[in-house]
Amino acid sequence: MTQVQRSDFDRLMVPSYAPAEWVPVRGEGSRVWDQAGKEYIDFAGGIAVNGLGHAHPKLVAALTEQAGKLWHVSNSLTNEPALKLAAQLVESTFAERVFFTNSGAEANEAAFKLARRWAIDNYGADKVEIISFNNSFHGRTLFTVSVGGQAKYSDGFGPKPGGITHLEFNNLDALARQISDRTCAVVLEPIQGEGGVLPVDKAFLQGVRELCNKHNALLIFDEVQSGVGRSGSLYAYMEYGIEPDILSTAKALGGGFPIGAMLTTERIAKHFAVGVHGSTYGGNPLACAVAGAVLDIINTPETLNGVKAKHERFVKGLEAINARHGVFSLVRGMGLLIGAVLGNDFKDRAKDFMTVGARHGVMVLQAGPNVVRLAPSLIIPDADIDEGLARFERAIAEIVGK
Predict the structure, then answer these.
(1) Is 49 annotated as a binding residue?
(2) Is residue 199 part of a domain?
(3) Rounded mean pLDDT, 354-370
(4) Which of 33, 170, 374, 396 has the fewest CB atoms within 10 Å around its CB?
(5) Is 280 annotated to bind ligand?
(6) Is 60 part of any domain?
(7) E strand intervals along 189-343
(8) Is residue 279 marked as binding?
(9) Model confidence over 11-60: pLDDT tens digits?
């Protein structure tokens, strides 16, 4: 087959996605080109994955160099890129131990399994409850999708894993009533991504930490989407000054190359003894070499301060657009994870903003049916922000005019 087209997706692929009608073929920085040569400004970032844009030369160099050395060795051996990356993560976070995976779902799977193993080992077989929150998202495995607080993703697959409770996000009273000595862990996203780009309240987070301490439960932060510079700190928990016991990270960690990690402390990690958990590809040299280069660039004052400055530029631009067109009820988020909440006149139409935006040469996302989500490169040039917002405004004008 010399040429593929969008129609080949419908002919060849399992229909679990509904991709756009255009097919990207090349990216550079914050710009993408499709098969017809049309250019787009990327405010989507591969759903917060392409933290350094497309084809960043230092990532290309890291991948190319490692590709000429060692691709894979299995988990019966360790490798230099994995050890170097683990050292970077330990030196830069609360963590003392790292477990590498291939995705955010796998990182969360490991986190939930470790939390239960730790609780059972220390307190007995009844301490298994995991408390999560409505509208959360933690992955697509049967365990992680059940912990996630969105029934549309977990229903229809038969019996779900037990011992999981869902509560209202940012409601400390509800948590105080539910948590008990049977609770092994509370898991939350510091910024709910798929649930609508909703940051956690600091007072709520402090209360969660205190309740976990009181009931000997672990606090797990899912930073798959909010991590690796997205918030303006390396991880969003640093914005709040409240540390978790376990943290999951993925997406931007590899800058587009699949990798995830679970971070934790030594006292908890020891419950994953030899043979208790594993991953064939987790920690492979290619992914770890790229991720190490990602952290070298993102975990710097220049990049992280730039994220906060670019946040202000986006918010001011979106608010100016809204003053002219009146489509958003609220612009919220943190750093370069931004949600524009649609007003009542445009309820349930976030997908339209994606589709029409692409026609005007700008890529945006949705977070549920009522929130337009932006998760661009953390180093997107200001000129691309301004041009992308201008294109987005033209798309909005078309929607409003219909």
Answers:
(1) no
(2) yes
(3) 97
(4) 33
(5) yes
(6) no
(7) 191-192, 198-199, 218-222, 246-249, 260-264, 328-334, 337-342
(8) yes
(9) 999 999 999 999 999 999 999 999 999 999 999 999 999 999 999 999 99
